[in-house]
Amino acid sequence: MVVVIVEFRINRRSGVPAFQQIVQQTKQALRLGVLVPGDRLPTAKDVAEVSAVNPNTTLKAYRELEREGLVEPRPGQGTFVRRTLARPSASTDSPLYGQLVAWVSRAAEAGLEQEDVVALVASAMEKQYTAGTETAVTTTRSTGG
After folding, report:
1. For residue 84, what are the CA distances in angstroms to 21, 74, 77, 88, 119?
2. Any idea what the CATH number is for the domain that residue 59 is in?
3. Nearest-5° angle of CA 142, CA 124, CA 126?
């Protein structure tokens, strides 16, 4: 049996509830192929000790993941990954990932901060994935005068 260590990082300043952060991070691990069907998620007690969240918070996240069909609880054994979200071209060993890492490095070298990079990536994603599906809103700026 392969042991996969998943460590949830809870950002208390993000405004996103802790259980939702656990759901998002689990989905990210599923998309990247870090977690695969059959892997056991950490126990609620383990997550509580490492991340300083109430065990019920983790259980709430796991119930949400179960509702979505991604994990399944096995009484007395734990919670196990049921299905993956991974695509070969989205794994951390794909050429696309390597290109993205190189681009992020160039952005940092150019003086961009993490928030700048996130804003650029979000803008590019929005442009790519919502093209033609939204109504443009225009604003005018007064130059005073």
Report:
1. 18, 18, 20, 11, 28
2. 1.10.10.10
3. 80
pTM here is 0.69
Beta carbons within 8 Å of 132's beta carbon, 6+ residues apart? none
Task: Examine residue 141 and state whether it is found in any structural domain, yes or no.
Answer: no
Mention every residue, 6+ apart, whose C-beta is less than 8 A from residue 80: 38, 39, 40, 41, 71, 72, 73, 74
Judge if 22 and 76 occupy the same domain: yes
d(C-alpha 49, C-alpha 84), whole Å: 27
Total domains in the chain come to 2
- 76 and 105 together in one domain: no
Residue 92, CB-side half-sphere exposure with 13 Å CA sphere = 8
Rounded-to-5 percentages of helix, strand, coil across the chain:
50, 5, 45
pLDDT, tens digit (0-9, with 9 covering 90-100), for 28-77: 999 988 899 999 999 999 998 888 999 999 999 999 999 999 999 999 99
Domain that holds residue 38: 18-81
